[in-house]
Write a structure and sequence with these properties.
The complex is a heterodimer of chains A (458) and B (288). With 458 residues, chain A is mainly alpha-helical. Helix content of chain A is 61%, strand content 9%. Chain A contains 10 helices and 9 strands. Chain A has helices at 3-29, 76-105, 114-130, 135-195, 202-218, 276-312, 338-342, 363-369, 375-417, 421-457; strands at 39-46, 64-72, 222-225, 231-235, 238-241, 251-253, 262-264, 326-327, 335-336. In chain A, strands 3-4-5 form a 3-stranded antiparallel sheet. A two-stranded antiparallel ribbon of chain A has the order 1-2. In chain A, strand 3 (222-225) and strand 4 (231-235) form a beta hairpin. Chain B is mainly alpha-helical. Chain B has helices at residues 5-32, 43-98, 104-125, 174-193, 197-250, 254-279, 283-286; strands spanning 128-129, 132-133, 159-163, 166-169. In chain B, the strands form 2 sheets. Chain B has a two-stranded antiparallel sheet with strand order 1-2. The longest helix of chain B has 56 residues, at 43-98. The chains are: A mainly alpha (458), B mainly alpha (288). Chains A and B meet through helix 2, helix 3, helix 8, helix 9 and helix 10 of A and helix 1, helix 2, strand 2 and strand 3 of B.
Chain lengths: 458, 288
């Protein structure tokens, strides 16, 4: 080995360690970057330089060091597991969110819920049955009935708001899917361009992994990677991201007033998602809210029918046959009938009106009060609330469970791919010392050269 | 397993959050004294709790119904009691009037008193409770007896529910209770007025029949009142039981909650302390 080749070897050592130090710096810088995968400079010793000695025998000393490649501490299997865990977790979280919003619409057990208001409504009829001639009792019944109908309408309105909220969330999700598809397309292009030269586009792949994970949280996409390193993503059999940054965007249709957005593929097919938070949100928006509203509507209709049927047969305080007590065909339109609202004397509390009148007859009021506990109203409400409770509880249990699973996978991924500052610090010192030593050796070689030159120059 | 700052933080935040969530649940329970605040807190228990809450509401209403019924029954009994006394006085007067030695003017004087007593009977028949005439059947807003004793009410039943399915009548129609007495008094008055000794004697029988009618009505009201008492006692007991059952299902066990709260607080603080010690130092701190 010549003295000059030693300098060249040391130069490479300095450069390699500097490169390693760069990687340490990169790792430290990204210690908190979500989805970042720890990188490592793989050092490899160099064979002796190709030149043979003058005597034809190879020299045994090696040629120093080089950075053979940059490696990511990635486990594809763990990444995939994590994406799936994140998908389940996101899906259940969306469901739990929805059910807790529904729970807020039906706060039970409480002193302000519909259950309590129904009880007070039936009690008010009892009071009228006690003193049918009392205008105060009648007025208080009208008021109680109004409070009840207001609450039913309000509950229906709140469910509507929940639906609107879900619609906004779903629209946001679809926008994001389109956006991610575009980003994936452009990252694909960059990766393909970089990797054509044979090196791995490590950080771009991290970025793409993150995008894919986010996409999988939203919907059940499938994907394959091409030879050139492009990731092709499919949703519902459509090519969301195709080769050459070609993407298919889901079309968002503007809703009719009060309606919800429609989501379609360019070929006209409606977007159908089976997993992920978008699936949960769409299911809640299109099926669950509707089912709840239907049940509330049925309850309101039953209330109207049961009360009105009895009320029709009664006589008001002036001996006129009773009209309807309630008006409306569903929860949104349920109201106390205008006539009764305007004049509580119109409440048909009496079961008969003989002779000079029976203002003290409260038979019909009593019969209506005895509707209390009927399966069609009270029972229907209780089973509605109970079901909401079961669904909400299941969802929040699932969220806890899925989060646990996700975090476990995350911990395992972190164990493989995460940045440990202690490790990086150790590496830093290691590389620093190696760099120091190499630099010192350069000086020594320099000294050696000077010694030689001094001899010549003398 | 390789442990990184990321995994430490992840675990730490997880535990801290879980602890905080438990703390907030317990705190909610402590603040309200209730175990259930939303349908999902205990779904299997929810339906029974709602049924019981409604039952408590209903029992309280039945209590009010009973109170109201008892008020009417008591007032009715008092009025009938007074009427019985009036009839007894009428009977005394009739016995006096039947005495053949009385002069026509003495008879007249007796007739005046009978007239006054008859007015009293009419007034009793027009007894009101809180503005409600209790002897007019279901015609409760106008006086059931005209001053001449004509019954203007009807035979309608004034009913109220005092427990699920148990319906009591709170009044007796005035024609059953008073009409006999009033017409007996009128007959007596007429006989005295015309100094008709035989007529006075005849009205004695009428008075006795009317007295029987009054006593029967009074007994009827008494029987209902005692039935109301029985129901009331049972309802009171039922309400206590119901509240106890509801409390078991719905209320938080404060002692237990406080204990758990202490435990969770300690766990939470320990987690914080451990986090503070664990997360802070790294090799960086020692490379000076």
């Amino acid at each position: 080995m010549s003295t000059f080749s030693a300098i060249e070897l040391l130069r490479r050592a300095l450069a390699s360690h500097q490169r390693s130090m760069d990687v340490v710096g990169h790792n430290i810088a990204n210690v908190n970057t979500p989805g970042y995968t720890r990188q490592e400079a793989v050092l490899a010793s160099l064979p002796p330089p190709g030149s043979l000695s003058r005597f034809g025998a190879p020299l045994l000393a090696g040629g120093g060091v080089r950075v053979a490649s940059l490696r990511q501490a990635r486990d594809e299997f763990l990444d995939r597991q994590l994406r799936q865990a994140r998908q389940s977790s996101a899906e259940w979280r969306a469901r739990a969110d929805f059910w807790s919003q529904v729970e807020a619409v039906l706060p039970e057990p409480s002193d302000v819920g519909l259950g309590e208001l129904l009880a007070r409504f039936w009690n008010a009829w009892q009071e009228v049955s006690l003193n049918p001639e009392s205008l105060a009792a009648r007025a208080s019944l009208v008021q109680q009935a109004q409070v009840l109908t207001d609450a039913v309408r309000q509950a229906a309105g709140r469910l509507d708001q929940v639906r609107q909220h879900l619609d906004a969330v779903a629209t946001g999700h679809v926008h994001r899917i389109n956006q991610i598809a575009q980003e994936l397309g452009s990252v694909n292009t960059q990766i393909a361009r970089l990797e054509v030269s044979g090196q791995r586009a490590l950080d771009l792949r991290d970025h793409r992994e993150q995008l894919l994970a986010e996409l999988e949280e939203l919907a059940d996409v499938t994907y394959t990677e091409t030879e050139s390193g492009e990731l092709l993503v499919y949703l519902q059999g459509r090519e969301l991201v195709g080769p050459g940054a070609r993407t298919t965007a889901v079309q968002i249709e503007t809703p009719t007033p009060g309606g919800v957005h429609g989501f379609r593929w360019p070929d006209g097919e409606t977007l159908a998602v089976r997993r992920g938070s978008l699936a949960a949100v769409l299911r809640a928006r299109d099926a669950d809210v509707q089912a709840l509203q239907d049940r509330l509507d049925t309850l309101a209709r039953n209330l109207v029918q049961l009360v009105n049927d009895l009320h029709d047969d009664g006589y008001d305080l002036d001996g006129n046959p009773g009209g309807p007590f309630f008006e409306g065909t569903d929860a949104r339109t349920l109201r106390v009938a205008g006539a009764v609202l305007g004049d509580p004397r119109k409440i048909a509390a009496a079961g008969s009106w003989a002779g000079d009148g029976e203002p003290g007859n409260g038979e019909v009021a009593l019969r209506i009060a005895q509707l209390r506990g009927t399966e069609q109203v009270d029972g229907a409400y209780r089973s509605l609330v109970a079901e909401v409770g079961v669904r909400a509880q299941e969802a929040s249990r699932q969220v806890a469970y899925q989060d646990l699973l996700r975090d476990q996978v995350r911990l395992r991924r972190e164990a493989t791919s995460g940045v440990s500052l202690d490790e990086e610090m150790t590496d830093m010192i290691r590389f620093q010392h190696a760099y120091d030593a190499a630099a010192r050796m350069v000086r020594t070689v320099d000294d050696m050269l000077r010694t030689l030159l001094d001899m010549v120059g003398r | 397993m390789r442990v990184t700052l990321g995994s430490l933080t992840l675990n730490f935040l997880r535990n801290l959050n879980a602890g905080l969530e438990r703390l907030s649940r317990l705190q909610e329970q402590l603040a309200t004294g209730k175990r259930m605040h939303r349908p999902s807190d205990d779904p299997p228990n929810l339906s029974p709790v709602l049924v019981m809450r409604d039952a408590v509401n209903a029992v309280q209403q039945y209590g009010r119904n009973l109170q109201d019924t008892k008020t009417l029954l008591d007032a009715g009994q008092r009025a009938l009691q007074d009427a019985v006394q009036v009839l007894q006085r009428l009977r005394e007067l009739a016995v006096q009037g039947a005495n053949g030695t009385l002069s026509a003017s003495d008879m007249q004087a007796l007739a005046r008193e009978v007239e006054a007593l008859q007015g009293e009977l009419v007034a009793l028949g027009n007894t009101q409770v809180a503005g409600k005439y209790i002897f007019g059947g279901t015609r409760t807003t106008a006086a059931p007896f005209a001053s001449d004793g004509t019954y203007l009410g009807n035979a309608g039943r004034v009913t109220r529910e005092v427990d699920r399915g148990i319906v009591l009548e709170a009044t007796v129609p005035g024609d059953v209770a008073f009409s006999g007495a009033i017409s007996a008094a009128q007959a007596l008055e007429a006989a005295l007025e015309s100094a008709d000794h035989d007529g006075v004697r005849a009205s004695l029988a009428q008075l006795d029949a009317a007295l029987d009618g009054l006593l029967t009505a009074q007994a009827e009201l008494g029987a209902r009142a005692s039935r109301a008492e029985t129901v009331q006692a049972r309802l009171g007991e039922f309400e206590v039981q119901l509240r106890e059952l509801l409390s078991v299902r719905e209320d938080a066990d404060i002692a237990e909650v406080v204990m758990n709260l202490r435990l969770q607080e300690n766990a939470y603080q320990a987690a914080l302390a451990a986090g503070a010690r664990l997360i802070q130092p790294s090799l960086v701190d020692f490379l000076r």
